Amino acid sequence: MAIGTLKITSLIIRTIAKPIANAIKTQAKNHVRFRKACIGFAQWMHRTDYTLRMRLLGEQSAAKIRPLNDARAIENGATFLSESIIFGVAGGLLVYEGVRSSLQESQRRERIEDDISTLQDEIEQLKNNLRKQQIQIDEYHLPDGVNPSILKFPKEETSELEGSKDQSLAETIVTAAAEAQVKAAAAKELQPAKSS
């Protein structure tokens, strides 16, 4: 969609630039100073063009370059100025689009970096929460009168967890499961005592 907008904008500016170029041609024919500037510029372009052509052809001619007549010089100078304006507008649009797209890309990169930073902060917070829970689990003591010897864990479950990358997390899960079973057993033992 941005490319279509750019093309439409470019077409509008070129359409506006053409009447401006034609107005420059008219001013060059009517305005005395502007006409002199166009004639001087056109004569310089003519001499430079002639000299370059002779050098490309390999001829070193010392012959005098015949100048353009005033009408042709005004026409050539005004045409060059008007085409320069159109070219300048088109070039300006290209530069603007390049700068705009690079700004959008840098903004997109900044958003991605912000997202990554936020995710890293969340990961650190989760790690801290796990450490706090591990500390609470390590400080937990079984209540008096509870016999944990009745709890037995299958070897398969513990071996799978021990092989994981974060062994402390596996130990936390096993400990939490053991505590839950101990609490459930203690709660069952206390319920019949309350009812009698």
Main β-sheet, in a few words? Answer: none
Low-pLDDT runs of 5+ residues are 152-165
Topology pattern, helix = H, strand = E: HHHHH
How many separate helices?
A: 5
The radius of gyration is 43 Å
How many domain regions?
A: 2
Q: Roughly what percent helix?
A: over 70%
Please tell me the overall pLDDT.
75
- The 3D shape can be described as rod-shaped
Distance between the termini: 79 Å
Structural class: mainly alpha
Number of strands: 0
What percentage of amino acids are in beta strands? Answer: under 5%
Key attributes of the depicted protein:
single chain; 196 residues; mainly alpha; 2 domains; 5 helices; 83% helix; rod-shaped
Helix-strand blueprint:
Blueprint: H1 2-30, H2 32-57, H3 70-139, H4 155-162, H5 167-195
Helix pairs in contact: 1-2, 1-3, 2-3, 3-5
Brief rundown of the structure:
By secondary structure, the protein is mainly α.
